[in-house]
Each structure stands twice: as structure tokens, then as C-alpha cells.
Amino acid sequence: MERYDHRNIELKWQELWQREQTFVAPASVKGERARLAETSTSLASRRAKRAYVLDMFPYPSAQGLHVGHPLAYIATDIYSRYLRMKGVSVLHPMGWDAFGLPAENYAIKSGIHPRQTTMKSIDNFRRQLQALGFSYDWSREVSTADPAYYKWTQWLFLKLYEKGLAYRKEAPVNWCPSCQTVLANEQVTEGACERCSSAVEQRNMKQWFFKTTAYAERLLAELEVLDWPKPIVDMQKNWIGKSEGASVKFHLTHVPVRQSSGHPEPSRGVPGQKDGKHVVEVFTTRLDTIFGATFVVVSPELAKKWIGVGWQVTPEVKKYVEKSLHGRELERLERAAKEKTGVDTGVKAINPATNEEIPVWVADYVLGSYGTGAIMAVPAHDEKDFAFAKQFELKLATVVLPSFVGSGTKAWMSENNITDENNILAVIKESVESLKCTYAHRGSLLNSNEFDGMTSDEAVPAIAKKVGAELKTQYRLRDWLISRQRYWGAPIPIIYCEKCGEMPVLEKDLPVELPDDVDFRPTGESPLTRSKSFHDVTCPKCGKPAHRESDTMDTFVDSSWYWLRYCDPHNEKVAFDAKKVKQWCPVNLYVGGAEHAVLHLMYARFITKALQDMGYVDFAEPFLKLRNQGLILGEDGQKMSKSKGNVVNPDEIVTKFGADTLRMYEMFMGPLEEAKPWNTASIAGIRRFLDRVWNLCLEPASVPAPSESPEPGFLIAKTTKKVTDDIEAFGFNTAIAAMMEYVNYLASTKLAPDIRIKALGVLLRLLYPFAPHLTSELWQRLERDGYVWQQPWPEYDSAALKRASTTIAVQVNGKLRATIEVASEADEAAVIAAARTMPLVAKHLVSEPTKVVYVSGKLVNFVV
Ligand code: ANZ
Ligand code: ZN
Predict the structure, then answer these.
(1) More confidently predicted of 833 and 446
(2) Element (H, E) at 160
(3) pLDDT in tens, 323-351
(4) Cα–Cα 20 to 30 A to 441, which of 113, 220, 514, 661?
(5) Has residue 523 been placed in a domain?
């Protein structure tokens, strides 16, 4: 018999799929009906449903694919092929996130233009993906570095600009002195550049931002409707970081300002008296503790502002401010967590609750970028303030104690080694006041005048009224810094005219194309500044000489909307036709790595909401269902990396074992979302399984089966149900296991020819999404109608399945070891044989059983 020659078979079918445009998604509803009518009648009768199944598009690196890349792509391909057989029209596209640093860094080294290297990498990626037989609609391929694409990225910028959602401001940025570029916070790991590991510095520059903060509340609230993994949702929530609190104004005294009369000598303000002019606003989530606010702390950023407007602070304060502002915020936080530093500014503030004068310090544990950049410090009830007060011997007052002594309080006591069970409240107070610990929980107030005895929750609104605090919500989310001082990105479509100022490029003048006369050597400026053809232009309004913005956009802007472009990829008039988007969007299923859990997803969500508000789309969330794939580790259990020499190249596996084997193996490795090590030996096992399927289908029909041949209807239904349910639940490994069991049965059982044909037909259809080449070939060789992918997905009658099966308890020496589902009419021998194969049973059958007890439809007991 002819052997299974994967190479020729895979090439044959890949060519046919391309030639016949098998996986091109219908462009319109009309086209779709026509298509359905063309194919088999059973298909035409099915309702035209739609699904958008999306992979996170890759950055086409020069290294090409490694075996980790296809994991998610295989899963979505199986799912897409399955849906199509169920009569669903599927949009399953692929494209390239083609702008980015590696190509530009390579250009700096080699002098080769990034366009050239990127094109080459794309060709290689496409070839590799096609060799795996993915059913992408390649007619919709997009590349973000293509002017026909980035024209619309620039259009998106202009739309946001029109709405006031894109703006320019001076801002401190993370600067990598070696890559010579601004980095997003997430591109900085432990103070070092993610790409080159150089220490990152802070710099002030005029930068473009997108106002993501305008959508903070919706970005949080609308997470609720999504079917996403919980850890990813939680990361989105943390990134948004909503806090409910209050802002309170503290009047300042002893303000060292120059007098307005112009006298050169600084005034000391008026001690003990508020002038009404100078205040510091603090943000607190614990307004209930305000009677315990014994000092105020301002961030070095705020202190710098004070110095900037002429406050005459001591040299010590100046020095401290300068020192703290050097370096990154994150490092500053890490440092502040270990050791508290700070300086008394000499300024005093009046606590609006107690009317007492309290000192104002400057310290780096207070961030300039959060809240108001200043805090009221309550050392008795806040860890950080406590540590600070201890260090600098500042006053402390206990103003909250537990409302009652419950298990929470008991737990707090044991955490703090407080054992005294008598008069617990007094003991807690004493522990706080002797600087043993803080009491950071809510409770009931004391030492708070008229609010004494109120609970924290009751006190907040009451105190707010008294001190004129404004209850407000604070978000940790910052606006999105999109400026990059790089060449290989979409130019920001803005022109600066001396007379007219900042001018958006007119839509008709898009795209602003990247010029070729550039010098990639990094200098700190964008390379575009040095391109004459690019930089020098005339003002679109007054026609006077002007110059272009030379920064390009963060590549996350490109990837925030690519999924919309797939719906209408060749449109030259608009970014996407609203009707076409409506046909497919939002995306039904999105699969990709968890490393994009925060940024890419947040940005795509933000852009969607902005487009919705502008009327370009009619939905708020881009990706309804999200799944993550786990890492494929090297054979040594370590992360695959070139330096460890444990990278597996999919090309080699495809050549040696075939794409179908690679697809099946990656799905069989374990649950999709888990990390799992590669194991070349197990690939051979998968290949043997496919060989077995090949032989089973093509071996000459066996001798007529004996009349008592068991009816496989139950097993067919059971396997169909299992594979269907597992694909729906993304349990691909267990679906494969069920098919293996099924093949074992077919290979070891003599069946009547007609039953055998039916059983094999079901097998090929169930296996098709996993091993599309092999099953297409076998379907054809078995002289079945049409192509396997044109067949309906096998159906099963779940009620009949239920009626037709019974659960049997399997015991060894009277002890329950397993339960099995068998056909109700299964005979004794079949049930016993099945029971023996259960792993837990086999394990306990240390020797041949001396006796087997069978209670029909109920139980098997092996006695050993
Ligand atoms: C007084 C207080 C008393 C506070 C107390 C806490 C406990 P989240 O929940 O993260 O929003 N804070 C406010 N702005 C800050 C800044 N710029 N840098 C550092 N810390 C800042 O935290 C809000 C709390 O963090 C605020 O409530 C404030 O301290 C501090 F028993 O005010 B609290
Ligand atoms: Zn002008």
C-alpha cells in the first residue's frame, strides 16, 4: 500500500486552497448567499451566520517563526475550519505589525533600509505560515508599514486631534541614551531599557499624547461585558486604577514668597495666619482620618513648581528636590519603599479639621503624577506616613479604632504580635502610639470632635461638608504618549508654521510618506528632522515656509485599529466602510499572548470607544472573547532563546513530519493557555497516529464482519459530542485524545462495510480542522462527494446519546477506581474490556484478576 507522503499531499492542497480561494471571506451578504448556493445543497439550507476569528498579528522579525508562534494560530485555524463546516461565514485574516525598532536598529548597523529588511521578513513569515496550511483569507493581508495602510493611521490621528483627543505638551519622558529614543513605561524594566538594557534617564520634551484618560471610566466599566480571562481583566482594572476619595485644601502659612511690592528680601509670610492665597490641595482615600493628619507632604515636582514661582526655600530643600527629580519615577518608588527621605520646607499648613498648624515636608515617596501631587500624612493609619514619621520623629494621633472586635481585628492583632486580650481597643491605641504599628483599617472615629463614634463610612461625607472637601474619583491611568523619535513608524501628520502655529495636514494630502533620504544614525532627534525633502514644507493655510512634525507614532497606534481595516482592506477612499465593519465586528474571538494584556488591548479599546463616539463604528468593545496561549518552552523546560540554543524551527518539523503532525502535536501538548516544554520524541507518536489513520482508510476492505459485530453508533455519537464540545471550549488536547481512542476502536474492530464507511466519514470530518491536508486527501481517495471542508459538521443526537448510555462503576477488590460511560446495549465482554483500559484501574490490576464480577448496567469488580 502507498505510504503517507505528507510533502506532496500538503503542497497539493495548499495550492488548491490558494487557487480556488477557498478561505476568502465573502465581501458582502449577497456574495455570501451566492457562494452558499454554489456549494452543496445541505450547506445552502443552513443559515448564514458570521464570525470574526482573529489572531494577534505578528511583528515580522528577521529570525522568522519559531514553534511558539503557531500555537495560537493553530487553535484559531481549527476553530475557523470547524465554524465553516457548521455553516458559519468566517473572517480569518492575517497581516503584519511591520513598523518598529528592530528593523531600524538593524538599519543603523547594516545600512540596509528597514523597508527592505521588513519586506524580506514578511515574505518569509508568509511562506512559513502558508506551509502550515492556515486557512487565512490572504486577500485581506495588511501591513502597517504600507503607505496605503498608514495613510489611515494618520487619518485616525487627525480625527482624534479634531476631537481634542490628541494634544501636544511638554512632559518628562523615559529616555534611552543608547537607543536614543523615548520609551513607554512598560518598555522600561527595573530602570533599564527593555531592548538594550541601558539605564534609562528622564528628559523633558514636547510630545504628542492621546487622551486615554477621557475614557477611564468607560474603559473600566465596559470590561464587564467581555468574555476575557480573569487575570487579564484584573490587569486592565489595575492599570486604570480607580480610587474613590476626596480632595481637600490646606491653607498655607509661613510661605516664603517675595512680596508683591517688589522688595527683594523674602517675606516669611504671616505665621499662624492664612492669607487665603496660598493653599495646597491633597488627595486622600481616607478623609475619615483627617483629624490625625499631623503633617503634609508634597512631591518634589510640586516643590519644584513652588521654587519656579519664586518661593525662597532653603538650599537644602532645593538640593533635595533636584536630587529626587533625577532618575525615573519607578526607581524613586523602589528607593522610597526601602528608605524614607525628605526635608522640612519650613512652610506650614492649617489642618482644616483641627485648625492646627502642621509642618509641610517634601519627600520623594509622594508622586507628582498622581492625585494632586500632595498628601495629608496620617502616620497612625498609613504605613508609609508611619515610616516617615518614625524616621523624622513627627507627631502622630490615633483617630480610628475597630468598630468591634471581630475576626478581622483578631487577625490584625496576631499579625502584629499583640496578645493582650483585655481592653483590646486601648491596647491597639497604645501599640500605635508607642510606634509599634499602624492601624490601617476602617472603623469608628475618636479624637475627632463632633465626629467621634461615627464609622469611617458615615464620617466621610460629614467631614467633607465641614472642611469643604470635594469627593472625587482618581484614576491611575495616564494619557498615552505616542511620540517616538524614530524613523520606522507612521509620521505624525502635523505641520508647524511660524505664523499659524500647529496645523494638521489636510486629509487630501495624506499619506505623509516616509522619505528615503534619511540618515539612520541616532542623534536624539528623529532621523526625519534631517531629511530635507520631508522636513521643509509650506503651511497649508498661509503658504509660508513651515516644517513637518518629525516624530512618528508609537506602533501601538498602528495595531489599535488593524482589525477594522481587515474588514475593508483595499478601500482607498475611507479607512473602512461602516457597513462592512458592521458585517463582521466586533471580533468574536481574539487569541494571542498574555504579554499584550495591558497595552495593546487597552489602546484598541480606547480607539474603539473614540471611533464610536465619532460615529464611525456602532459598538464599544473591539474583542468580545479573548483567549491566551501559553509559552512553548524549550526541550530543557527553559524559555526558548537563541542564546540557549533550544529554539525549534517549525520548517524542520514540517519537512520531516509534516504540517499536520506539527499542528496536531502542538495541540496535543496540553491545555492551550499553559506553558509546556517541547518534546521531539512525542512528535513521532503523533505522526504514527496519522499514519494509522492513513492505513485505516486505505487498507483493502476487510473480510465481511461477523453478524454479531458491535454497532458503533454509540461510539460515533460519543466521539462527535466530545470533539465538538472540546473545540467549543478550546480543549484541543482532549479532543485529539478522543479521536485517538476512536481510531483504536476502528482499527481493532471488524465492521460491516457500510458501517465502516460511515464511521470513517465521521472520523475524517472531525479530524479535518486539526489535520486538514491529510483528511482532504483521504476524503478524495475514498471517492466521497466534494471536498471534506464542504461537508457539514457531524451531528449527534444528544438525547439519544444520553438514553443510550449508562454509567458503570469500576472497582478493584471492591474499591471504586473509575466510572465509564458505555452503550446501554453493550455486552458483558465489551464493558469488561473497556473497564480494564481505564488508567486507574489498570494501575491497580497488579496481576491477572482471579475473578470478575459483572452486574449488568451497574458495576464491574475485578478481584485480584
Ligand atoms: C491620607 C490617608 C490616610 C491615606 C490613611 C491613606 C491611608 P490609592 O488607593 O492608591 O488611590 N496618596 C495620594 N496621592 C499620592 C501621591 N501623589 N503619591 C503618593 N501617595 C499618594 O491611594 C490613595 C492614598 O495614597 C491617599 O490616601 C494618600 O494617602 C496617598 F490612613 O491620604 B491617603
Ligand atoms: Zn501658516
Answers:
(1) 446
(2) helix 147-162
(3) 888 766 767 778 888 889 999 999 999 99
(4) 220
(5) no
Rounded CA-CA distance 161/213 in Å is 15
Mean pLDDT of 597-609: 95
> Which of 281, 286, 474 to probe ligand 1 with, by most ligand atoms within 8 A of CB?
286
CA of 536 to the centre of ligand 2 (A): 13
In a domain? residue 532? no
pLDDT bucket at 705, cuts 50 / 70 / 90: low
**What CATH number is attached to the domain comprising 830?**
3.10.20.590
Tally DSSP H helices, then E strands, for the chain: 31, 31
Ligand closest to CA 497: 2
- Number of Cβ within 10 Å of residue 216's Cβ equals 20
In this prediction, residue 807 has a pLDDT band, given cuts at 50, 70 and 90, of: confident
This prediction has a pTM of 0.83
User: pLDDT at position 767, please?
Assistant: 98
- 570 and 454 in one domain? no
The pLDDT assigned to 40 comes to 43
Backbone angles phi, psi at 482, to 5 degrees: -105, -5
CATH code: domain of residue 788 = 1.10.730.10
What's the one-letter identity of residue 371? Answer: G
CA distance 312 to 86: 76
Residue 723, pLDDT > 90, answer: yes
Asked if 337 and 444 sit in the same domain, the reply is: yes
Checking if the pLDDT of 225 tops 60, the result is: yes
Residue with cell 500500500: 1
Pocket test for ligand 1, best of 290, 370, 388 (most atoms within 8 A of CB): 370
Domain that holds residue 812: 804-863
| Same domain assignment for residues 818 and 738 | no
Do 310 and 401 lie in one domain? The reply is: yes
Look at the chain and report how many structural domains it folds into. 5
- Indicate whether 80 pLDDT > 70: yes
**Cis omega (within 30 of 0) for bond into 511:** yes
- Looking at residue 446, the DSSP 8-state letter turns out to be -
So what's the pLDDT on residue 704? 53
Do both 54 and 28 map to the same domain? yes
708 and 582 fall within a common domain: no
pLDDT for the residue 621: 98
In this structure, the residue with its CA closest to atom 5 of ligand 1 is 382
Amino acid occupying residue 638: Q
CA of 302 to the centre of ligand 2 (A): 37
Residues 822 and 777 in one domain: no
Is 683 among the domain residues?
A: no
- Please report, for the domain that includes residue 62, its CATH number: 3.40.50.620
Count other C-beta atoms under 10 Å from residue 32's C-beta.
Answer: 16
